[in-house]
Amino acid sequence: MTTIKKKALIIGAGTGGYPCAIRLGQLGADTLLVEKAKPGGVCLNVGCIPSKALISATKLYHKALHADGMGITFGPPKVDMNKMQSWKAGIVKKLTTGVQGLVKSNGSEYRQATAEFLEPHVVKLSYGDGKPDEVVQAEHIVIATGSLPLEIPGFEFDHKRILDSTSCLDLDYIPKSMVVIGGGYIGLELGQTFQRVGTKLTVLEGLDRILATMDPDLGQLVAKQIKADGGAIVTKAKALGWQEKQGQAVVQADVDGKPQEFSADVVLVSVGRRPITQGLAIERAGVNLDAKGFIQVDARLQTNVPGIYAVGDVVGQPMLAHKASHEGEIVAEVIAGKKTVNDARVIPAVVFTEPEIAIAGLTKEEAEAQGHEVVVGKFPFSVSGRALAINETTGFVKVIADAKDERLLGIHIVGPEASDLISEAALAIEMGAYVPDVSLTIHPHPTLGEAVMEAAKHAIGEAIHIQNTRKH
Question: Are residues 267 and 305 in the same domain?
Answer without folding.
Answer: no
